[in-house]
Amino acid sequence: MAVSLWAQNPPGAAAIESKLDTPQARVYIATLLPHTPVPSRTGHATNRVLIYLDNGVMTRQEGTDKVQKIEFHRGQVRWRPASGAYVAENISDHPIRILEIDLKGQPAGPAPVTKLDPTVVDPKHYKVELENEQVRVMRIHYDAHDKGEQHEHILNRVVLYLNDQTGAKADEVRLSGAGTHTEQNTGDQPADRIAVELK
At CB < 8 A and 24+ separation, what contacts does 119-123 make? Predict the structure, then answer.
């Protein structure tokens, strides 16, 4: 898949693998080759959530601003506001992949709340990583054979699986909707996910 994507993109462009496209968000994986500047001549018109899929280091320069060096590790989450033109470069010695969630439009208003919010009723497994008026990002961890509390989701969310687990493979991306359920990791290894709720 990556080979065909490189062929479709001009030199110096990131390879883009589309994952989801909904009324609320466009979700894709951008792969940057090492030591290849990637100019984004129009920048990004929307706010984004970035989730790094690999460890690495990159630089980013917007306009005539000072070059910003960004070090990151797999599973790290970053909020990136809309921006103008910039140049990014992967200065690692290996390709890096970034899951990008481009947010469409503005939130519909104050996010609804539920008494069965997973971060309230099951804080052992659900922790808030980042929250603002457009998203809430939760980090989810279950030990092997661990069972959680019943909880409710009331917002659509993009879910990234960070490792192989029952019913999903590492780096799989899914869209989930509202629902009330209890979860259990039936596998012999820990299960880690990141869920980006779309307000």
Answer: 121/149, 121/150, 121/151, 122/148, 122/149, 122/151
Q: Which residues contact 4 (CB under 8 A, 6 or more apart)?
A: none
SS3 4: helix
Q: Are the C-beta atoms of 30 and 97 separated by less than 8 Å? A: yes
Percent of the chain with pLDDT over 70: 93
Closest residue by Cα to residue 30 from 44, 199, 22: 44
Structure tokens at 93: 């010695």
Encoded amino acid at 154, one letter: I
8 three-class SS: helix
Indicate if the pLDDT at residue 2 is higher than 60: no
Q: pLDDT value at position 64?
A: 82
Q: How far apart, in whole angstroms, are the C-alpha atoms of residue 68 and residue 2?
A: 27
Spatial distance between the Cα atoms of 87 and 48, rounded to a whole number of angstroms: 17
Contact between 192 and 144 under an 8 Å Cβ cutoff? The reply is no
- According to the model, what pLDDT value does residue 142 have? 98
